[in-house]
Design brief:
It contains 1 helix and 12 strands; from the N terminus they run E-E-H-E-E-E-E-E-E-E-E-E-E. By secondary structure, the chain is mainly beta. The strands form 4 sheets. Strands 1-4-5-8-9-12 form a 6-stranded antiparallel beta sheet, with no helix packed on it. The longest helix has 5 residues. The two termini are 29 Å apart.
């Protein structure tokens, strides 16, 4: 099991670029900084080299920039995985964003209105040959 949690409480105490543009950024939250974020990933080894895995990622709402004018909503996505570890080959199958949730993962360049969506449900198969 891998798990993590972060609680951030940041403030912007001013910016020369923002001041020259006429924006006052006293006590604003830094852009793209969620107050809370967490993730958990569980992996269970099975017989004969097979395994199953699953996990979740969460981020609370965050501002797109230090202007604190546009908010990206919080999100929670779930992922699944399965695979095989062999002597000469490893094979993995992952299903990301299990419930095909629409969410925003970031804002490009710390910009207020250029938000970047998260990946849709994605199935990935990979293989690795050991030499």
């Amino acid at each position: 099991m891998y798990a993590g949690y972060t609680c951030l409480n940041g403030d912007v105490d001013g910016s020369p670029q923002a001041s020259s543009a006429g924006l006052v950024l006293n006590q604003n939250t830094p852009g793209l900084m969620p107050r809370h974020s967490a993730s958990v990933w569980l992996k269970r080894d099975l017989s004969y080299g097979f395994y199953l895995a699953g996990g979740a990622q969460f981020q609370s709402a965050r501002f797109t920039s230090a202007s604190d004018q546009v908010t990206l909503p919080s999100y929670l996505v779930f992922d699944l995985g399965a695979g095989y570890h062999g002597k000469n080959v490893d094979v993995a199958l992952t299903l990301d964003n299990l419930f095909d949730r629409n969410y925003f993962i970031s804002a490009h360049g710390n910009a207020d209105m250029y938000n970047m969506p998260g990946a849709p449900r994605t199935l990935t198969v990979s293989a690795r040959w050991h030499m």
